[in-house]
Structures are given as C-alpha cells and as structure tokens.
Fold this sequence. Notes:
The complex is a heterodimer. Chain A has helices at 17-41, 46-56, 64-86, 94-111, 116-145, 149-169, 202-221, 223-233, 235-240, 245-272, 278-281, 285-295, 302-323, 330-344; strands spanning 2-4, 7-11, 351-355. Chain A is mainly α. Chain A has a domain at 70-324. A three-stranded antiparallel beta sheet of chain A has the order 1-2-3, with no helix packed on it. In chain A, helix 4 packs across helix 12 (285-295), helix 7 packs across helix 8 (223-233) and helix 13 runs antiparallel to helix 14. Chain B is mainly α. Chain B has one domain: Orthogonal Bundle (ABC transporter involved in vitamin B12 uptake, BtuC). In chain B, helix 2 (40-58) packs across helix 9, helix 3 (61-85) runs antiparallel to helix 8 and helix 5 runs antiparallel to helix 10 (221-240). Chain B is globular, with a radius of gyration of 19 Å. At the A-B interface, helix 5, helix 6, helix 12 and helix 14 of A face helix 4, helix 9 and helix 11 of B.
Amino acid sequence: MRRLGPWQIDRDPAPRGWWVLVVSLGAIASAFLAAGALFWAFGIGPARAYSTIFLGTLGDARAAPEVLRQAIPLLLCGVGLVMAFRAQFWNIGAEGQLLAGAVAAAGVALFAPLPAPLVVPAMFAAGFAAGALWGLLPTLLRLKLDVNEVLSTLMMNYIALFFVEWLIHGPWKGQEQRGFAYTDTLPPAAWLPLLPGTRVHWVTLALGLALAGGLAFLLARTKLGFEIRVLGQNPTASRYAGINPLRTTLVAMLISAGAAGLAGVGEVAGIHHRLLAPDQISLGYGYAAIIVAWLARGSPLAAVLTALFLGLIFSSGDVMKVTLQMPFRVTDIFNGLILFFLIGSERLLTYRLRRVPRPAPHATAVSPGPERQTGAGIPEETGVAESK
Amino acid sequence: MITEWILDTLIRALAVGTPLLWAALGEIYAERSGVINLGVEGMMILGAFFAFAVAHTSGNPALGLLVAGVVGGASALLHAFLSVTLRANQYVSGLALAMFGLGLAGVLGRGWEGIPLLNTLPEISGLTYLGVVLAVVLWFVLYHTRLGLVIRSTGEAPAAADALGVNVARVRYLAVVFGGILAGIAGGFFSVAYRPSWTEGMTGGTGWIAIAIVIFAGWDPLRAVWGALLFGALYYLSFRLQTWIAPEALRMLPFAFTIVALAATSRRRRGEGAPEALGLPYASGEK
C-alpha cells in the first residue's frame, strides 16, 4: 500500500471493467508509439505513416469495408480461442485449423455431387468438422499423455501448411490454368454472397456474430459453460465439483478448432473461390487471433470489438505495402508489440488507485470499497501445463 | 555405395543439426533456470538477417555471427524483462517475441533478398565441432559445478534457492540472455554458412523444432546432441528423398516427427521431466 497525496494504491484481486479498458488502451497506444519509433528509425515519419494508414483504411469510404472483411476470420478464430483459453488450453493452432477448414470447403465444392442450395451449408459443416479434427490430436495428446499443446498445435500448423501445398501442386492442381499452383475455380453455387461494393461475405460474418453471442450465452448460462469457467479458474476445485476435465476440455477445444475451420470456409468460399497457397488463404489470422482472444479477456462478445481492431491492423498492412512499400510482415511487428505491451501491463491490473482523503485527526478509519465478484476473464497466473 | 550414402547423410545431418543444437542448448539453459522462451524462431531469424547484413557489408562472416549473437541476446533481454521483472505470461511473451522478430527481420530485410554472399563459412565449420564441445561443457557445468546447481535450483525450487541467498532474478536474466545469444548465432549459421543468402522466413520453423529437441532431450545438453543429429538427418532426408516422394509430404516430416517424439517422451520418471518451476513467475516473499 502506498500513498500519493490523497490517492492510495492497493492490491486489487478483481479489477473493474473500466480499469481493464484503460490499461488495454494504454498498452495499445504504447505499442503504436513503439512502432512509430521503429518507422522513424526506418526513415518514415511516424506522423506520415499513421496518417497514411488512417486515410487508407477508416478514412476512405471504399477501403473501410476491408477492415470488416479482414475482421471476419479473426472473429471466428478469436472467439474460438477465447473458449480454449478459458479452459486453460493453449491452442496456438488456429492457423492450421483454419487451413483444414479451407481444404474441406474446397473439397466439398469441387468433388461432392450436391444440389446447389446444399453446397454452402455442406461446406460450412465440413469446414467445422475438419477444423475440429485438426485440433483433436493435440487435445487428445495433452489430455491422455500430457503433451505440451503449445508445441503440438504449432506443429499441426506446419503440417497443414505443407498439406495444402501438396494438394495444390499435386492431386488437386487445377486443369483450367496451367502453370499455376491452385485448384480449379469453385462452381458458382459455392460462392458466398457479398455486401454490394465490398468483399464482405456477410454469411460468414453473421456466423461469427452468432457464434460470439451463442458462446457468451453458453459460458454465462449453461452447465457446460459453468464447467469450463471453473476448470479454467481453478482446476483443483473443478475436480471436487465433479467436473470431468477431459470431457470439458475436449468440448471447449472442439468448438475452438471448429470455429477456426469455419473461418477457412469463409476465406475460400467468400474471397478466393479456390484453394490456393496457404500464405494467401490466411495472412496469419490464426496467430493474430491469439491477440484477439487475449485482448477480449475471456469474453466472446468483446472478441467482436477486438477482431475489428485486428482487422484494422491487417488492412493497415495492405495500405503500408502499397503506399509505403513496406512488406506485409510489418503487421507482425504491430502484433508482436501489442502483445508485449498487453502482457507487460497486466500487472497494473492487480493494483487500483483510490482517492482516500487523509483522515482528520479524530476521524474513524476509512471503510474499504464495495465488494465485487466479477473479474477479468483470464486468471492472473496463467501457468500452462508443462509436458513432463 | 550404401556406406557412402549413409556417410553423406550423416555429414548433411551434422550441417543442418548445427543450428538446431546451438539453439536447443541455449533454450535448455533458459528453461533450466525456470523461464520458457518460445521466441527462439524470432531470435533466430533476427540473427540470420543481421549475420547476413554484417557479413555482406564487412566481408567477414565471423563478425556477422558475432553480431547475430549480440542481437539474439538483446532480443532475449526483452523476454527476460517481461517474464522475470514484470512477471508476465512467459508463453505469450515468447510468442510475441517470435512474431516481432519475424516482422522486424522481414521489414529490415526488404531489399537484401537475392544478394549473393562472397565470403561464406563452410557448412561443416568450426561451429559444428564447437557445438559438440559446447554441449559437453554445458553438461559438465550444469551437473557438476556450483553454478549449474544454482541454475537448476532456480528452475526447480526458486523459493528455496532464494532462501539460500541466490538472486533468482539475476540467474534467470543471465540464462535467458545466454539462450538468446546462442539462438542468434544459430540463426546466423543459416545465412552465412548453410544457405549463404537472405530470404524472408529462411529459418523455416527450425526454432520451434529446437524447443521440441529440448523436451525430447529431457533438458540434458548431451542428449540434445543426439536430438539435433536426428532432426538434422530428418531435415536432410526430406530434401534427399524428393525423387520418390512428393517434396511437400517430406517437408512435413520434421514437424510430424516432433509430435511423435513429444508423445513418446511424455511419460518420464520423476527428475527427468521439465523443471518444476518452468513457466512460473517468481516474486520474492510472495506466495
């Protein structure tokens, strides 16, 4: 406890919502300042860089929908990761699960003899299943053999990447245009409708929003949600409460991986209309979704906002590529810095600043603030199970 | 014929295994002190870029490696500050370091792609032999010296080490930075010796493999030599067998095998597993 004039700093086990918001925004602002310093070292004035970015994204009526477009896969992957992280499962494999969904979608559209109205629903179902399947092996390995899921999910990303490469160079290589490594164009029945004048495939967007709402409800109001929350906050208590950790983690993880699979369907059916090189299907959405989930602090609804924010970063990457001749990798600098400042500022959340006037000589002791129950979703000490 | 082929494979395995060994040895020390650093890939790619840029400008590849080590150490310092001083989540901090390193190297390296390097180091250079010597030395220090005991105790029981007067934070800082220096040099090996050039993302996931080798080797520097050799051979074979099997399928091999290796080594006796306090921040006087 420390006094600064009339203010007092104490420990706070459950930070208030507005304080979480202030600290998060402060972290983001600091990351932008640090990135600005890097631009400056690189010979680009930060003011010019940021004004160019703003004018090329939100400040341009035709470019602004691109932010929303990029936010769609980030939302689906991010909401999924919120679920996995809440169950203390460190799913770093959304990128691979997204690619698995993309493969399934392309496979259904190219090879399944379905009547036209059923094609899109079948693609989404197959994409969810493929994503979940891609997440299944690391989940089982962690639950049965205690294998570190950070590494296993990451390895699955590389395996998915080379699997897609193999498909587009080998068995699924298109007949239409020779010399290019991608599949044939999907039949029009597999194309998702776009909002007029944009590349926003609204079906996937609606799915993402529905998923965010549905999972928020699931976490807050259902038995499964309760089990996931308890498991994430206190694994020992969850055992006493009779919660089956295997089943609960498995369900949370299948939802997580399946949601990433849906994102892959959206990219293939809404944007590219074919299966192509993995780094073109996903610009790293699966990795950036980690930030979406972390910023959302365990809330699926907050992930809608944070996905939009990361969508802004991704469309900024496009702008910087075109106008400032920066490689698209520049988004990784932003992402890395934001993550650094976010976790670096987390300790601030455990303190609170209260106005406590110095007591008059004969006044009674100051009463403590009102009790609060709610916390920021992610528990403070988030030790990941190590592989032993 | 067949002995020649095996010998050839072995030599190439040594070449690819060299950076894997260096990076894994560094990570072993960091993890033994209780700090997991998932940013190896980021530190390696920064090392690769700076080694190439310095070697190209100065004409001296050894100087390039030296600078790569400094850059690797400096980037590890960032991770140490976050995970030791700020007690932030080590897993996320490491991932952030990987992203940041890949991003920064990509931006800095713009315009350096496709330039050939005139003075290079041979693939099987002093670095390979030095790596094996280093493994023996690090093994000896870890298990047979007081310093090694101090490092292991901060990773196993930081509170006990603290009570005995060990400065846990300082040990962890030094171990993490040491790990970063080795990772930086490992990355530099790619761009001045193994494939003397600069390409974005040229470390190609080897940083993650190095972390897997640490687990595979049971946090033992000597066993990391075998791990690096095994994965080096796997990497080489994934290029060598392209005549018969699709190259994409082969390039999956090291990553698929990593999962198999992690699963196979998951059941260990007590004392052979991860350091007890790995990944857990430590604050003196706090429960």
